[in-house]
Design a protein that fits this description.
Length: about 250
């Protein structure tokens, strides 16, 4: 039995705190997703890209200390499963409030990781921004955030998406690849799923901004064909870093 995963996208309205949901058509189940900020200086950064449900992907961003409206493009990868043959689940975990919150969501046994997401749960202060949303193992998804220049603790929620065959007559194998880019004020990285096609299909991807000093923040983590792209930026103060891109794929084995 072949798997079919399609990609959907749409854009939010331009705003200082852009946000929006992307709902997939009937018969689809979300396996992963991402987001890309279209900003002008001084910049707008991601605060959320996560599965609100198996049919809805949510994204959000914010400017920080200086007004800078932007648009976010949301991306969703979704399994076409009109006969409900596949069991797809979302596990989540929320951290305590912290200046640099971290949370890890763990899949139940027997599920294969296909993707995940993250949401920083900041309040009405200066805000807390995403620095990572990535597969920390074959069954876990880790989310990280940070306040920036102004202290503002927040919690963060990590989401892990997993799959298994409902009847148990097919086994799913997963694969994760990653690549790290060069250090820069606005770092980027890309990684391509290089296993033999069409047996393997891309189901999701993730990102880590390996920041130091004042900090560097995520502005993009999104698919393009078999490749996953990641973008970051420093903000208001120079703080070069590199970013790591992750791409996830699965295949079925009888």
């Amino acid at each position: 039995m072949s798997l079919r995963v399609d990609v959907f996208d749409n854009e939010t309205k331009k705003a200082s705190h852009p946000a929006g949901d992307l709902k997939v058509p009937n018969g689809y189940k979300i396996t992963g997703g991402g987001a890309l900020e279209f900003y002008s200086p001084p910049g707008n950064m991601l605060t959320a890209a996560y599965p609100k449900s198996l049919q809805t992907w949510s994204v959000a961003g914010k400017d920080h200390e200086q007004t800078s409206p932007a648009v976010i493009k949301a991306f969703v990868l979704a399994l076409f499963d009109p006969f409900n043959e596949w069991d797809v689940v979302i596990a989540e975990k929320t951290s305590d409030s912290a200046e640099f919150p971290t949370a890890t969501a763990t899949l139940p046994d027997d599920y294969v990781l296909t993707g995940g997401g993250a949401c920083v749960n900041y309040g009405s202060g200066s805000g807390n921004i995403l620095t990572a949303s990535f597969p920390s193992s074959k069954s876990t998804w880790e989310a990280r955030g940070k306040d920036h220049l102004v202290r503002d603790p927040a919690s963060i929620t990590a989401y892990a998406i997993g799959i298994r065959h409902r009847a148990g007559t097919l086994r799913v194998e997963g694969h994760i690849q990653h690549a790290t880019g060069k250090v820069a004020s606005h770092p980027f990285a890309s990684v391509t799923l290089e296993l033999v096609r069409p047996a393997w299909i891309v189901t999701g991807g993730g990102a880590v901004d390996n920041w130091q000093g004042q900090g560097n923040l995520l502005t993009g983590s999104y698919p393009q064909g078999d490749t996953w792209h990641v973008n970051g930026k420093d903000h208001l103060q120079s703080s070069p870093a590199d970013v790591t891109a992750y791409v996830l794929g699965i295949r079925t084995v009888a």
